[in-house]
Amino acid sequence: MNKVKISSNAGILVMLLLLSTAQPKPCPPCLCEQQEDLRGWILNCSSMGLKEMPPLSSELCHSCHTINILHLQNNSLTTVPLGALDNLIYLKEVDFSNNPWHCDCSILYFKQWLEDFSNASLANLQCASPASVKSRALSQLTGNELEGCRKPQPIKCLDFFWRDFALIFVAIIVLILARCILQYSKKLTSQAARKLHPFEVPLLQIHDLEKQKSK
């Protein structure tokens, strides 16, 4: 009889332990709930009006290193800090939908992390700001389209030298061509004048010679 009571008590204790571990635990401001197979945890931070990412570390929830599912949908998140998701090495599922993402250069880490983790999760995200990319899917934006990510090309003095040299060379060629065209036009004008008045030039020459003789 004692053995039966002990075994039944042990069974009750095991059941109570299982029930207690299955209950959601507070991980402020989120809730941690153990999965049915007891192999991982669900971190539920959805619909809590969050404006910033919660600190996903051991200080938040003692089992965060075994988080398999992360829910952060329906909040007011605009970006994800650099490295905020790197410690979640057992993560299998995420939901970041329905947040007003600000798609500038600061969100590039989050975009690249989702590209490596799950393209399907990335496809659900839309930009709320800035105005240039509003309502566009984050997955469709390149680094150059994210405000502040464009890097100016390094200025090389040699590039300026060759550019200026080319401009000067072209300018010299244009001047030479212009002079040749001007001289050729004068020649054509002179020839045309001789054809129109063939006797005027010799008469003028004779008149000049007579003036010189009279002097």
Automatic annotation (TrEMBL):
Primary location: membrane
Gene3D superfamilies cross-referenced by the UniProt entry: Ribonuclease Inhibitor (3.80.10.10)
Segments crossing the lipid bilayer: 160-182
LRRCT domain residues: 99-150
Protein name as it appears in the record: LRRCT domain-containing protein
Keyword Disulfide bond attached: yes
Bilayer topology annotation: Single-pass membrane protein
